[in-house]
Amino acid sequence: MINLFLKWILLIYCKIRVCEVVFNQTLFQINTYYPRQKDYFGFTSGDMVKGVVAKGKNKGTWYGSVACRSTGSFNINLKEGRKQGINHKYCQLVQKADGYKYTMERREV
């Protein structure tokens, strides 16, 4: 049976900044560490990007949020899984990170 009442719905999620927390058991204190640099090669973690890779293991066009590394080798988080080791040269900025995560989903109305 074909359902004719499927529509695209925009889902918006609020994201919070996560830091690495280290618990020092000898002094009973919590130390937090943030990276000194905020952006790498013009990208910030959480930006929506389009990655176009012409050859290699990750060949194809990928849309998703980026996880930045200082080496320039980024991860693109897709709706299902992630692509690791995409060079910054192959990434194009679609939308800057604004604290929210946007996804499109088909649902019954």
Describe the protein.
The chain has one domain. The protein is 0% helix and 53% strand. It is built from no helices and 9 strands. The chain has strands at 6-14, 20-24, 29-33, 48-53, 60-67, 73-77, 82-87, 91-95, 100-108. It has a 5-stranded antiparallel β-sheet, with no helix packed on it. It has a two-stranded antiparallel ribbon with strand order 1-9. A hairpin with a 4-residue loop joins strand 2 (20-24) and strand 3. The chain starts with 5 loop residues before the first strand and ends with a strand.
Can you tag this structure with a few keywords?
mainly beta; two-stranded antiparallel sheet; 109 residues
Termini separation? 16 Å
Most strands sheet: 5 strands, antiparallel
Q: What is the number of strand segments? A: 9
User: How many distinct folded domains?
Assistant: 1
Beta-strand percent range: over 45%
- Sum up the overall morphology in one term: flat
Rounded Rg? 18 Å
Strand order of the largest sheet: 7-6-5-4-8
The structure class reads mainly beta
- The helix count comes to 0
Identify low-pLDDT runs.
none
